[in-house]
Design brief:
Keywords: Hydrolase. By secondary structure, the protein is an alpha/beta fold. The protein is built from nine helices and eight strands. The strands form two sheets. The protein has a six-stranded parallel beta sheet, sandwiched between helices. Strands 5-6 form a two-stranded antiparallel ribbon.
């Protein structure tokens, strides 16, 4: 199956460099996506530009595809299900949850000179980054791409309730499946609460398993493609 890989904030398609060969070895066709404004040199990109890039990748596939979103990009993966429910076979969400209609995409950190730069490791101390050594942290920080303001503060628009028919697998890294189930039951994740086929899988990692557990993550994603 073709598997579209969308990394979260400050990352481009190279974030999946260690996941891609592992997925290929398992017989899949991974397509890592570099988003407008996050690797193509365009600081003026908007959320609509990123959505359009995701849809172009979905539309170019010869068959239904699995769309994988990491962190904030879980919302991009969910937008693909909303806008192309007939072409998305499954959505995989890694370490994040889709925002609802009318919410900002990723207005999490201060904007500086029209972009949202990586804020440093302070906000991510604890389970998020516990499995990243100093070398990995330095590499991430030096390669981090500031996210355009019009992306971070863009408004999410969801229009097609057929998205809830698309199966979803939630990969739980710095939190557990039990915690995620509690959040869904408590009404904290309203989009996921309405998904008809929602599976939870655990991975023993921090927030960036594509860096620290790439082979295991590839195995989990491959397994998800075979689920009913």
């Amino acid at each position: 199956m073709e598997i579209l890989l969308i990394a979260g904030l400050w990352l481009d398609g190279t974030a999946w460099d260690d996941v891609v060969p592992a997925l290929e070895a398992l017989g899949h066709r991974p397509v890592p996506l570099t988003l407008p404004g996050q690797g193509d040199g365009s600081a003026s990109a908007t959320l609509d530009d990123q959505v359009a890039a995701v849809l172009a990748a979905v539309d170019s596939a010869s068959e239904k595809t699995m769309v994988v979103g990491h962190s904030a990009a879980c919302t991009l993966a969910w937008l693909a299900a909303d806008l192309r429910p007939e072409k998305v076979a499954r959505v995989a969400l890694i370490g994040g949850f889709p925002n609802g209609d009318g919410q900002p995409y990723a207005d999490f950190f201060p904007i500086q000179d029209g972009t949202m730069p990586f804020p440093g490791w302070g906000p991510f101390e604890g389970p998020d980054s516990a499995d990243l050594d100093e070398e990995a942290r330095r590499g991430f920080s030096s390669a981090a791409i500031p996210v355009p303001e019009a992306v971070a503060r863009g408004t999410v628009r969801l229009t097609d309730e057929r998205r809830f028919d698309v199966p979803v697998v939630l990969v739980c890294p710095e939190f557990t499946p039990a915690q995620a189930k509690e959040w869904v039951a408590a009404g904290e994740l309203p989009e996921l609460a309405r998904v008809k086929h929602l599976d939870y899988v655990d991975i023993d990692s921090g927030h960036w398993p594509m860096v620290t557990r790439p082979v295991e993550l590839a195995q989990l994603l491959a397994a998800a493609t075979a689920e009913n």
